[in-house]
Amino acid sequence: MNTIIFRTIAPLIVATMLVFSVYVCLRGHNEPGGGFIGGLIGAAAIGVFGMASGVATVRQALRVDPMAIAGFGVFLAGFTGVLSLFTASPFMTSIWLYLPIGETTIPLSTPLFFDIGVYCVVFGTISAIALALESDREEEL
Amino acid sequence: MDYVLAALVGLFIAMGVYLLLSRSVIRMLIGMTILGNGVNLLIFTAGRVTREVAPIIPSALEQPSGPIANPLPQALILTAIVIGFSMFAFLLVLAFRAYQSLDADNTDTMRLAEPEQTPNPPLSY
Amino acid sequence: MDLGLSLDTSLLLVALVPFLAAFVAPFVHRFIRPVSGWILALVPGGIFLYLLGFVEPIVSGGTISAGLDWIPSYDIRLSFFVDGLSLLFALTISGIGALVVLYSGAYLKGHPHQGRFFGFILAFMGAMLGLVLSDSLLALFTFWELTSITSFLLIGFDHGRQAARRGAIQALVITNIGGMFLLAGGILIHQIAGSWDLSAVRGMGEVLRGSGLYGAVLVCILGGAFTKSAQFPLHFWLPNAMEAPTPVSAFLHSATMVQAGVYLLARMSPSLGGTEAWTLTLTIIGGVTLLWGALGSLRQTDLKQILAQSTIASLGLLVLLIGLGTEASIAAMAVYFLAHALYKAGLFMVAGAVDHETGTRDITTLRGLADKMPVTFIGAGLAALSMIGLPLTIGYFAKEEMYLGLIGGQWETALALIVLVLGNALLAGVALLVLIRPFLGDLAPTPKPPHEAPIAMLAGPILLGAGGIVAGLLPDWVGHDVLVPAASAVLGETVKSHLSLAIDLTSPLLWLSALTWALGILFYRQADTMRTLLRRFEQGLGWTADTVFDAVMFGLIRFAGAVTRFFHHGQLEFYLTVVFAGLALAVFGPMFAFGGFDWLVPAADLGDWSKRLVLPGLQPYEWGIILLAVLGLVAVLIAGTRLVAILSLGAQGTALAMIFLLFGAPDLAFTQFMVEILSVVILALVMTRLRLDERDHRPFEDWARDGTLAIVCGAGVSLLLMLVLTGTLDTRLSDFFTQTSVPIAHGHNIVNVILVDYRGFDTLGEISVVMGAGIAILALLRRRKAPLPPRSADPTEPNHRVTEAEA
């Protein structure tokens, strides 16, 4: 699998996929997409990167342990639910905030951050699994 | 077309069951995936299928302009797919480790928890 | 007595304080080891003194009740009430409890688990107090079961010995079966009377006795009481419970545990008593138990066993008295209960002291201890006098009162009188045996050189014995403060006390007593002969209730083993076959039962197949995708190599994704695509490293069986789905999501809005599951730091490694 062509193209593919995964995640509320799909695309990118450049390189590039990202995701998702405490409404009641920046308005909402949490969990967990399997394989070979 | 999908669901389930009844762990794993796919399709079909109109409201509107696909089964299935995948990965790794530790992928030879000759329970207090 | 607390609070405290004390007892014991018995005895002692304050209002005819809501929606309250009967029991329990705690401080001195023991015995006392103070039948049941559990812990306290474990299990099994009876009886009573409260049920005797369910209620209540109070033929657990440390025996068999059944019968007698069935059952069972226990007592040579068997006899006596149900017999019941509690607890303590200081309890080896253990001897003497029923002891009045109601009646009462005289005489013989054999005569050698017991162990017998005598000297007080309130509570009307110190030589009662004593002396002198005879009889019988119990228990274990081996034999495919056969049944059963096939294919259409053969309106590319799915599935099945199998798996998944895409589910399609890609990648990563046999080697029978099952399951699900599709879909929920997605949740992608907003809580759970699976996988994959040991022939080896890998 480690052909020259694959190794050369892989970083390009990976970068594109990662950007695309974030895009899919963020647009999810109004267009097809969302945290689950985005996370899967991102994890696939990491898997491809791992195959091409080796697990050590990927871990170095990620800087953070993927499981930590997943943990952060669960925390973020749970935390957005807790925020509704401040509006004296039940757990996970959504809160919307419209930030006007120049001509456009950026809608910030707890469901958005919740979705980002989902993204982090799926991305982190599945990347961790893929990397662990790959490193297991590398050690054996 | 509903009936065709229903028949396809039956095929998925039958294949999944047949593979799950095998003694090889890897075949059981594949059977599990197929069974999961079959159940997802079952939920999807049971929520009625329509062609090509995704449950997405055009950005200018508050309500969909015409009939749309049923969003509820889709939401159920979306998480089911991801969880099913996690389950699949877990079982795969478990089978892999079992293979490494026990040198077997046949469930008949995996008898550590329930050995062939279980001793009788002690007859005393 | 007013402690500044409301009555509710203080009465609740009485029932709950022992549990709190039980909780802290081990810690208290750890810090003040030498005097922990003295300190902890303050708890029951305090309760005793507090309850004494209730005597005055109760004697003047009142009752006290308190409670709090437990499960208000079912009208269940944790309610307590105090009347003469419960006060008598509660005072006895707490009073003897204090002495027992004190006693066990010395008896178990230096035992490594003494703190635990204190905890158990205080919890047991709390359960017992709760039992006699409960007003609600359900609270009574709860405390009843608590006494069973705590007595299990106490009897099995010395859990290193098998005999102790057996005794504990026996007591638990028998009394818990009784507990179930009691629960059933309580529920039936609630059904009939419409109230859980004993104080309300008491007034509804007519309703209960007239009900068609009276027989069932009676069986249940008697079942509960007879198991707890060790009535024949369920008496055998009680002697085995003697495996408990002696303080436990002294407590359980005098005023608590076994008396719970007597209490229940006394409590229930105004509501259930008075019928022929009640009277006959109680008198017959009570009478048989009395004689059986008394004779059994003479058979024994172990001091504790002698006392245990005599307890059975006394319980039978109490049940017999409740069964007779006359004013005099109920009064006798109250007095005898007190007398018995005082002397039996004292005698057990004496037996324990003798055992503790000499190392044996065998009356055939013990002789002449009176010189070495004078105070113990005095304690034994006081208790034994009361047990014999000599004048000036409370036992005398109990006996007088018993005979009083039975003189000059029908032949039934005469028979009861004979049984009572005989039973009392046997018990008097036992008392003489226990008093004279170990203490009088020449000193015989014992395993340990005998010496006097410590004061904490003497306080109990002396105080209790003195109590018996003092009560005997103050018949007016006993009559007024003990007998009348308790008997009135049982009978529901005010009774008069007949107790007096005057001895009337013309009264037949005196002569009956004299007859009892004479017979008692006779039995004592012939004790050895009788023992030989009784033992021969027992050997001739060949089996005992004990052997039956063992056979039942072992049969149960064997049965459980057989069932487990049948269902859990370790063949995974058998389990799965059962599961899928169950699935097929669950799908097809209701379809047949509710005529699902008629709905699917109406009988009218059956003849005309052309009507059913309508080609589905699918586009060619849709057919193509479905074909891809079918091909993928079939290819997985017949794949010859791993790679083909993996790719075919991918093919069917991709086909599924395309179906989602075609029918309006782009989100699902994307997700499914990504999952398929990742699955194939992961499978490829792992599968290439397994040297597996990828072909399916099923024997033909298996192949046929599995195939049939698979087709049946698949067809069943298909048909069920078609049936569902013929019905109408309830779209209210979907419509709600569709209508409100933009206005409320500000999202245009309804599926995503459902996921992250409407069902956000579910999604939170789901991502936690994903993360959990990830952690489990990483744990499985974690490499051991140390190199793998070479595979050895040691059979335990793989086991060890698997647990390590799973950990």
UniProtKB/TrEMBL annotation, chain A:
Q: Where in the cell is it found?
A: Cell membrane
Q: Name one Pfam family in it.
A: MnhB
Topology of this chain in the membrane: Multi-pass membrane protein
**From which domain of life does this come?**
Bacteria
Major subcellular location class? membrane
User: What positions belong to coiled-coil segments?
Assistant: none
UniProt record similarity statement: Belongs to the CPA3 antiporters (TC 2.A.63) subunit B family.
Q: What is this protein called?
A: Na(+)/H(+) antiporter subunit B
Supply the source organism for this entry: Devosia oryzisoli
From TrEMBL, chain B:
Q: Is the Membrane keyword given for this protein?
A: yes
Where is it predominantly found?
membrane
Highest taxon, organism lineage: Bacteria
Q: Which residue windows are transmembrane per the record?
A: 6-21, 28-46, 75-96
What's the protein's topology in the membrane?
Answer: Multi-pass membrane protein
- Which keywords belong to this entry? Cell membrane, Membrane, Transmembrane, Transmembrane helix
GO terms under cellular component: plasma membrane
Subcellular localization(s) per the UniProt record: Cell membrane
InterPro entries per the UniProt record, alphabetical: CPA3_antiporter_subunitC, NUOK/Mnh_C1-like
The record's family statement is:
Belongs to the CPA3 antiporters (TC 2.A.63) subunit C family.
Q: What is this protein called?
A: Na+/H+ antiporter subunit C
Which source organism?
A: Devosia oryzisoli
Source lineage: Bacteria, Pseudomonadati, Pseudomonadota, Alphaproteobacteria, Hyphomicrobiales
Automatic annotation (TrEMBL), chain C:
- Where is region (Disordered) located? 788-807
Q: Which UniProt keywords apply?
A: Antiport, Cell membrane, Ion transport, Membrane, Transmembrane, Transmembrane helix, Transport
Q: Give the UniProt subcellular location, in the record's own words.
A: Cell membrane; Membrane
Q: Show where the NADH-Ubiquinone oxidoreductase (complex I) chain 5 N-terminal domain sits.
A: 71-118
Q: Where is the MrpA C-terminal/MbhE domain?
A: 704-785
Recorded GO molecular functions are: antiporter activity
Sequence ranges assigned to domain NADH:quinone oxidoreductase/Mrp antiporter transmembrane in this UniProt record: 134-417
Transmembrane portions of the chain: 12-32, 39-60, 80-103, 115-133, 169-193, 213-234, 277-294, 306-324, 330-354, 375-394, 414-435, 455-474, 509-527, 574-601, 621-639, 644-663, 669-688, 709-729, 763-781
May I have one GO cellular component term?
Answer: plasma membrane
Tell me how this protein sits in the membrane: Multi-pass membrane protein
Q: Which GO terms describe its biological process?
A: monoatomic ion transport
Q: Which InterPro entries match?
A: CPA3_Na-H_Antiporter_A, MrpA_C/MbhD, MrpA_C/MbhE, ND/Mrp_TM, Nuo/plastoQ_OxRdtase_6_NuoJ, Proton_antipo_N
Source taxon at top rank: Bacteria
Pfam families recorded: MbhD, MbhE, Proton_antipo_M, Proton_antipo_N
Query: According to the UniProt entry, which residue ranges have a biased composition of type Basic and acidic residues?
Result: 797-807
Every MrpA C-terminal/MbhD domain range = 627-691
Where is it mostly found?
membrane
Q: What is this protein called?
A: Monovalent cation/H+ antiporter subunit A
Q: Which organism is it from?
A: Devosia oryzisoli
The organism's taxonomy opens as: Bacteria, Pseudomonadati, Pseudomonadota, Alphaproteobacteria, Hyphomicrobiales
